[in-house]
Structures are given as structure tokens and as C-alpha cells.
Write a structure and sequence with these properties.
alpha/beta, Carbamate kinase, VC0802-like, 2 domains, 8-stranded mixed sheet, 35% helix, binds adenosine-5'-diphosphate, binds aspartic acid, binds magnesium ion
Length: 405
């Protein structure tokens, strides 16, 4: 008897008909003689609605209370799913994060999983139940509810699969698999049969929300093969696996974009040791992660320093930098929220050259100005004006021979 973990995202459980559709798939897997643990997201749009409801009370609601609120989305779907399966004649039980012993640290809104006990999941499986676990949520050492960051149900699924040494972990979503670019903005995107953990990890960190980045980190670390596929058809999706020699032959395997960053520039900063730390440490201390950084020398002893942060942290970071600018004697602080990051990714870049120059030439041909550049071993990213995002993704997709026939 195999143990199969199946995760269904928000669109797949978006209403009662869709919940019934998922229940039939789960039941089929059970009928085939498998043990099944189902991880669910909230109905699509619900987490956003809860966030906006809290935002109507105050601009920065208490983060502990936010997690109590956000966890209700998943509580709704797991109970409805267990009821649907029971109505179909199956033994089924729902489990919230704390009941499944998903222990996390206490960083509300962005908690990390530390351990999964899963005693009750095992007991219920042994007793012939289908177990339906609320994704996205856990509990900290004080017994407080925590959530794992947006898209966190993917991570719940992989962590449960790893803890229970599941034979398969299937991520069911609203697209047929992982594509060479977001199929919702690039009509020529192609479905990949396989992708390396490192590639999808880069793609996820660069804006492709098809998998939460931490879920891939977990999967790689604990050797959990992932199958990303659609809950609306029976087709095979994309397998996320360890890299092999064949994958190196493809130079670029995908294009990603992210419209959720903003840019902050401190102008005319005195150019002396320790200044970058004075500017960036307070931002890090506030829990804001800085992505790209560039520094340009303007005059002999003055420099401009520019960095990017998530859009959701933009206002907080601007406030911090306005204070820093006064302290260090910078001329002004400029903010820009209308930027986007486009990136090309591929493990083949390790052994091929010329990718960066081709990317820059492609953007130049479309008259798209590059504001910032950053690279890693397997990707190149450029910050551009947000309004050119779709054009940039499509032209890079064509230039790197990724278009479907
Ligand atoms: P779920 O609710 O199932 O977790 P998400 O909305 O979080 O689904 O993730 C699926 C979405 O990811 C797709 O609808 C698609 O718009 C987006 N996406 C971005 N990049 C890619 C990609 N390279 N391949 C597939 N989907 C992608
Ligand atoms: N419901 C949460 C979100 O919308 C978690 C998830 O769907 O994975 O971010
Ligand atoms: Mg998701």
C-alpha cells in the first residue's frame, strides 16, 4: 500500500462543486488501494478577502491576530472536504495545523516549519481514514497559531510528505504543470515534462508562484519528488527532480517575472566605509528582505545607492530610509513602485556563455530600458519599467527558443 500526499490549491477547492470534484479524485486514489493524506488551501480569493477585512480595521494589524484570522480559510475547506468524503461513504477526518503537530517557529505570517509529529495522522490512516490537513498553518511552541507565508500550503504538503516518507507528493493546481513562463501572460509557454529542483527554486524566488520557494527547498533536501499537475484533467504534469546531464544541454529553461518589488534610491550618499551597512541594516532589522542592490559613484566622494524590496514592505522601508538619510547626510530618498523584474533561468548557463548579452540585446531591440541587473550561476535578472513586463517576457521567451510550435 503506497502513501500518497495530494495538495489542492485555492482554485481547485473554490466552491462546493470543485470540492466534490477533488473528493472524487481523492476517493479514486483511495479505491486504488492507497493511503491518502490531502492538504488543502483556502478557497481562492478567501485569504485576500481576510487580509483586506483586517486592513479596514487598521493599516498594520497585529500579526499574531492576523494568523488566527488567516488560518480560518483553510479550516473551512478541510471540514467541507471531510464532510463531502463522508457523504460519499468514505471514512475521513480533517486536521488543523496544531492537531497534525505541525510545529513552527513564532514568526507570525512567515513561520518556518521546525518539526512534524503527525502522530494522529498516522493513527487515523491506520484506522482506514482519508486524512485532510489544513495547509498554510502550524502551531508554535506556545500553542499559538502561525501561518507560513503566501502560497504556504505547498510547503505544508511537502513537509508532511517528507515527515511521513510518502511515496508520492502531488501538487494539484489550476495549470497543467510548470511552464517555460507563466502561461497566463505568455500564450506560447510550453509545459515542461521535468524540471530540476534548482531551476524551479530560482523560478519561484523570481516570481513564478506556481510553487512556494520553501516547498522546493524542503523537497530537494528530503528527496521528495514532486508532481505538479492540474486538478481539472487527468494529464501528467511536470516532475520536479534532481538535475541530470540532459538538463544541462538546455541553456535557458524558463522566463520568470515579478511585479511585486519596488525600488528605493538614496541620492548623494557620502562615500565612506560602513555606509552601505548604515543604510541596509535598519531595513534588515525590520524583517524586510532586500533583493537587488547597486551603488554608483557620482562625484569623487558621493554615491547613489539603490535597492529593491517587496512592494508590501515599500512604505515601511521608505520611512526607515528617510530617517537614515537625515542621519548620514544623504541628499534625498526616491521611491519607485512601477518596476518589474524579468529573469531567465537554466542550469545550462553553468556551461554556456553569451546568455546575458543575448538577454540585454533582446530587451534593447524592444526599446526596454534596463535599470538594474543581477546574476547567479543559473539566472540573469533585469529590473525594467513595469508596463513592459509582458512584452519583455514574450520577447525573451522567443529569443531563447522556448516558444511552443
Ligand atoms: P494554487 O492556488 O493552486 O496554489 P497558484 O495561483 O498559487 O495556484 O499557482 C498557480 C499559478 O502560478 C498559475 O495560475 C500561473 O498563473 C502561475 N505561474 C507563474 N509562473 C508559472 C509557470 N512558470 N508555470 C506555471 N504556472 C505559473
Ligand atoms: N491560502 C494561502 C494563500 O492564499 C495559502 C495557499 O493557498 O497556499 O496564500
Ligand atoms: Mg499557490
Amino acid at each position: 500500500m503506497a502513501l500518497i500526499v495530494q495538495k489542492y490549491g485555492g482554485t481547485s477547492v473554490g466552491d462546493l462543486d470543485r470540492i466534490a470534484n477533488v473528493a472524487r479524485r481523492v476517493a479514486k486514489t483511495r479505491d486504488e488501494g492507497n493511503e491518502v493524506v490531502v492538504i488543502l488551501s483556502a478557497m481562492s480569493g478567501v485569504t485576500d478577502q481576510l487580509i483586506s477585512m483586517a486592513g479596514n480595521i487598521c493599516k498594520t494589524p497585529d500579526i499574531r491576530e492576523m494568523d488566527v484570522l488567516l488560518a480560518t480559510g483553510e479550516q473551512t475547506t478541510v471540514s467541507l472536504m471531510a464532510m463531502t468524503l463522508q457523504a460519499m461513504g468514505y471514512k475521513a477526518r480533517s486536521m488543523l495545523g496544531h492537531q497534525a503537530e505541525i510545529l513552527t517557529d513564532s514568526r507570525y505570517n512567515r513561520a518556518r516549519i521546525l518539526d512534524i509529529g503527525a502522530r494522529r495522522i498516522r493513527q487515523l490512516l491506520a484506522d482506514g481514514h482519508i486524512v485532510v490537513v489544513a495547509g498554510f498553518q502550524g502551531v508554535d511552541a506556545n500553542g499559538d497559531i502561525t501561518t507560513l507565508g503566501r502560497g504556504g500550503s505547498d510547503t505544508s504538503a511537502v513537509a508532511v510528505a517528507a515527515a511521513m516518507k510518502a511515496d508520492q507528493c502531488e501538487i494539484y493546481t489550476d495549470v497543467d504543470g510548470i511552464y517555460t513562463a507563466d502561461p497566463n501572460i505568455c500564450s506560447k509557454a510550453r509545459k515542461l515534462t521535468r524540471i530540476a529542483y534548482d531551476e524551479i527554486m530560482e523560478m519561484a524566488s523570481l516570481g513564478a508562484k506556481v510553487l512556494q520557494i520553501r516547498s522546493v527547498e524542503f523537497a530537494k533536501k528530503y528527496n521528495v519528488p514532486l508532481h505538479v499537475r492540474s486538478s481539472f484533467n487527468q494529464e501528467d504534469g511536470t516532475m520536479v527532480v534532481h538535475e541530470d546531464a540532459d538538463m544541462e544541454k538546455v541553456v535557458v529553461s524558463g522566463v520568470a517575472h515579478n511585479k511585486n518589488e519596488a525600488r528605493i534610491t538614496l541620492r548623494k550618499v557620502p562615500d565612506r566605509p560602513g555606509i552601505a551597512s548604515r543604510i541596509l541594516k535598519p531595513v534588515a532589522d525590520a524583517g524586510i528582505s532586500v533583493d537587488m542592490i547597486i551603488q554608483n559613484t557620482r562625484l569623487s566622494n558621493m554615491t547613489d545607492l539603490t535597492f529593491t524590496v517587496p512592494k508590501s514592505d515599500f512604505e515601511a522601508a521608505m520611512e526607515i530610509e528617510k530617517k537614515v538619510a537625515l542621519e548620514i547626510g544623504a541628499a534625498e530618498v526616491l521611491g519607485d513602485e512601477s518596476i518589474a523584474k524579468v529573469s531567465v533561468i537554466g542550469v545550462g548557463m553553468r556551461s554556456h556563455s553569451g546568455v546575458a548579452s543575448k538577454m540585454f540585446a533582446t530587451l534593447a531591440e524592444e526599446n526596454i530600458n534596463i535599470m538594474m541587473i543581477s546574476t547567479s550561476e543559473i539566472r540573469i535578472s533585469c529590473i525594467i519599467e513595469e508596463k513592459y513586463t509582458e512584452l519583455a517576457v514574450r520577447s525573451l521567451h522567443t529569443a531563447f527558443d522556448l516558444d511552443s510550435e
